[in-house]
Every structure is written in C-alpha cells, then in structure tokens.
C-alpha cells in the first residue's frame, strides 16, 4: 500500500470514527439528512492535521495548483488551510494560510481576509465539507473582490449533493480528499 493510499484509508477511518453521525439532521442548506459530518472532529485533531496536510499537498501537486496562499471561510476551512500550509513548510515550499471572515471587522483595518493576503495572489480555497458549495462560493467571491486569483477549491469531504457541480459551473475546478460515497454514506 502506498503512503497516499494509507493516508487516505486513515482519513476515512478517522472521519467514520470521529466525524460521522447518523440520525435526522437539519443541514445549514436547509435540507434534512440521515447523516451529519462534523469534519472539525477530525480536522482539529493532531493526527487529522498531519494526514490532511499531507493529502492536501498531494492533491495540489496532482492538480498542478501552485498557490501562494490557501484558505477559506472561517471556521471549517481554518484547520484545513493551516494543516496544508504547515505541511508545505515542512517540505520547504512557501505557502501561507488565510481566513475569510464571515463579516468584516468593525474596527482596526476592517478587513474581511486575515493573513498575508494581497491583491494578485494566487489562492486555493479550502473547505471541510462541501454540500451546496455556498461557503466556498462566499470565500471565492470575497477573494476575487479583493483581487485574488482562485486556482481551485479543495475540500476534505464532498457530500456528493451538488455543491461540486455548482462550483464547477461557476468556473472553479474542485477536488476532494474523500467523498461521502467513499465513506459509505448517501
């Protein structure tokens, strides 16, 4: 088994152990679902950060994406971006993370994007779970409005519920480390 296959298997196990809940759930999209993926239970764990960082870097390379920055809408995207940025640093590759606030600050610089973001930067937007794609759309809208160039969108989990197609129709290539189908869900 390759390192990549082993890491993907471990991510699958961690998500099933820590993040997947079965029952009747109301999702942020307003839809009801028989399962809920609280990816933060995995993405905020030490092991999850290491696994996601390594797999995320691998997906960036496979896509040919060479961003200067990686980030997305707080809070789901934050640990994902930090994990990938830290993994890049460990390999000697410069990559900084950024966070898109849900609302602009009402004091200080009143920024919507935190981190070393600058107009003209090439970025990959990350997400913990894509359902409708709404959070990733908001992040890409803010990044574009601030002069950033979005190379693509990378999610830890794609719920296979249309979000990927919505984002791709908007012109953004999308990749995911794992899908709900691969987790035996849906």
In brief, what are we looking at here?
By secondary structure, the protein is of the alpha/beta class.
What does the model show?
With 186 residues, this protein is of the alpha/beta class. 39% of the residues lie in helices and 27% in strands. The chain has one domain (52-183): Rossmann fold (3-Layer(aba) Sandwich), CATH 3.40.50.2020. Helix 4 (77-90) links the parallel strand 3 and strand 4 (96-100). The protein is globular and about 45 Å long. The model has no long low-confidence stretch (mean pLDDT 95).
Please describe the biggest sheet, giving its number of strands, its sense, and whether it closes into a barrel.
Answer: 6 strands, mixed
Distance between the termini: 27 Å
CATH topology annotation:
Rossmann fold
The strand order across the widest sheet is 5-4-3-6-7-8
One letter per element, helices H and strands E, the order comes to HEEHHEHEEEHEHE
Q: What's the CATH first level?
A: Alpha Beta
How many structural domains in the coordinates? 1
Structural topology:
Blueprint: H1 3-19, E1 20-26, E2 32-37, H2 40-43, H3 46-63, E3 69-73, H4 77-90, E4 96-100, E5 113-115, E6 122-130, H5 134-145, E7 149-158, H6 163-169, E8 174-179
Parallel strand pairs: 3-4, 3-6, 6-7, 7-8
Antiparallel strand pairs: 1-2, 4-5
Helix pairs in contact: 1-3, 3-4
Labels describing this entry:
186 residues; Rossmann fold; 6 helices; globular
